[in-house]
Amino acid sequence: MKKTETPQINVGGRWAVVIIVLLFLALISFITALIVGIFISTSEVEESGNVAHIKITGPIVAEADKGLFRGGAADSTEIVRLIEKADENPDVKAILFEINSPGGTAVASYEIAHAIQKANKTTAAWIREAGASGAYWVATATDHIVANPMTITGSIGVIASYIEFEGTLQRYNASYRRLVSGEYKDMGSPFKEMTDEEELIMQDSLDLIRQIFIEDVAKNRKLPQETVDEVADGRFYLGVQAKELGLIDELGGKDEAVAWIEKKEGIEAELAEYRKPKTLAEVLTEIFADNSFELGQGIGKAFLDAKVVKGVQIST
Amino acid sequence: MDLNLPEKSVFYGPANLWKRMLAFLLDIFILDFFVLSIFSGITGKIVGDTKEVLLVYKMLQQDTSQVQALTMLFMIIIMLALAYFVLLQYAVGQTVGCMLLNIHVVAQTGENKFGRPSLLQSFVRNMFIIPTIPFILLWIADPVYLLFAKKGQRLTEWLSATRVIEKFEI
């Protein structure tokens, strides 16, 4: 090979660049590791204490969507797991449920309520702003309910309302092509008008769910079924009204709920929050939350997840 | 008596393949020390104290969120490794491994003329580090091309018009 030209750089300068680059990479690694490490350590479940504290906030659903724009729901699968975990812990003497939820799906509420009933611990519910409908169902499964005088509670009933788009489709000269095998297969589709028969079937289902709801509340609150039936017209009651009707046990807040547990168990309560630890994927997603792809995907998915296009959802 | 000896001839030729491989291994050690060791604590938190590969594999199979987390961490580490090669080859034409073995990464600017690689050239020649499709195909294509290339270039080196050379003196 002939003599060639190569770029020259003095040796001292080269090593200086190398050291700068290596220090830069180490610094980036250290900062990334530090941030992730902090998130991991703060996301650990606190398990030392004799009273497990479980939060039920947001709409109650069987499985909450995870992602940038889909937080804030009470996932019954996760809450049941936490109840079982607290129940298995011999150091835990009682479980305090902090409820702030407008309700949720019938199945998810039922699952939580029955997990509470199965637990062999003293249980208490502390309802904050709202503990209505399905959330109230959950609260009734505990041994003692404490709520603020202005808390919105009750709302015993079932709802499955939805928006019908048939008129809108007609207005824009679009039509719904009905292809079903089974007369009522598309019952509740928002793109067609519900028939009287379909409405009757839906109403029967809702009444049946309401009946299960009422029976459970009556059994849990040790109230006559007729009494619960009377108040179960779907309306909400403020804490003061709920107390008078026997729907809750005590007016107050966290202190009152904890005091009741202490008196019942003869212990000095030490609360330990039981919550789902954030997975590292969630932590890292938070760190990179400004990623534009996630942003677009999140917004798009949020629109697609809108209940109106999914059809009927039965909620309590 | 004056001897009419030829002058010392200095020229640059393709770097010895073993030197190149050794330089790469040295760079991996450097990265292990400066980057991987810093992340080892976090990966340990994810997979726990389990040392058995099969147990870790089973655990990850059951928890896809942890797999996502590990993948994201892995990608961060890969990006830092890529930055190491790209920045050093762009800035000084050598990684630490190359410096220790006295080989150079250069851009071919003409017939037997070399210059410093640009940032893009440095990136292209190191694309094989990215462990995703299609770059992962370079793990096969790069060495296969090297076996048949006359100038001792990998495929990405040919694409980026760069070479690894060393100094020869006669």
What are the key terms here?
heterodimer, A: alpha/beta, 2-enoyl-CoA Hydratase, Chain A, domain 1, two-stranded parallel sheet, 10 strands, B: 170 residues, alpha+beta, four-stranded antiparallel sheet, 7 helices, elongated
Could you please describe the fold and organization of this structure?
The complex is a heterodimer of chains A (316) and B (170). With 316 residues, chain A is an alpha/beta fold. Chain A has 2 domains: 18-44; 48-310, 2-enoyl-CoA Hydratase, Chain A, domain 1 (Alpha-Beta Complex), CATH 3.90.226. Chain A is built from 12 helices and 10 strands. Chain A has helices at 11-42, 76-88, 106-118, 134-140, 166-171, 196-221, 225-231, 239-245, 254-265, 280-287, 292-304, 307-310, and strands at 51-57, 60-61, 74-75, 94-101, 122-132, 144-147, 152-154, 236-238, 250-251, 271-274. In chain A, the strands form 2 sheets. In chain A, strands 1, 4, 5, 6, 7, 8, 9 and 10 form an 8-stranded mixed β-sheet that branches. Chain A has a two-stranded parallel ribbon with strand order 2-3. In chain A, helix 1 crosses helix 10 (280-287), helix 2 packs parallel to helix 3 (106-118) and helix 6 packs across helix 7 (225-231). The longest helix of chain A has 32 residues, at 11-42. The termini of chain A are far apart. With 170 residues, chain B is of the alpha+beta class. Chain B has one domain. In chain B, a hairpin with a 2-residue loop joins strand 2 and strand 3. Chain B is elongated. The interface between A and B is large, with 32 and 45 residues.
